[in-house]
Amino acid sequence: MDKKNALRAGAVVAGTTLMMLLMTSPVLAVTRDDGDDPGPGLTIGETLGLYVAAPLLLFAVIAGLVMVLDKSRKQPGV
């Protein structure tokens, strides 16, 4: 019985994946839409800053605030 359910689940996942791949054809990305204005591309430095440095900096700020404002630590002398 378990083998039958696993086979059915695999078929559903494979079918869903195939349908998603067919519906999101990259050929449609070549055609420009009316009013489409992509603008200039990003340089390598801008891309790394936007997608690597900014998230790391944001993570560090949030982690620092959590550590500084953590009240679960025992206060010395209390």
UniProtKB/TrEMBL annotation:
Keywords: Membrane, Signal, Transmembrane, Transmembrane helix. It comes from the Bacteria. Residues 1-29 form the signal peptide. The chain crosses the membrane at residues 48-69. This is Secreted protein.
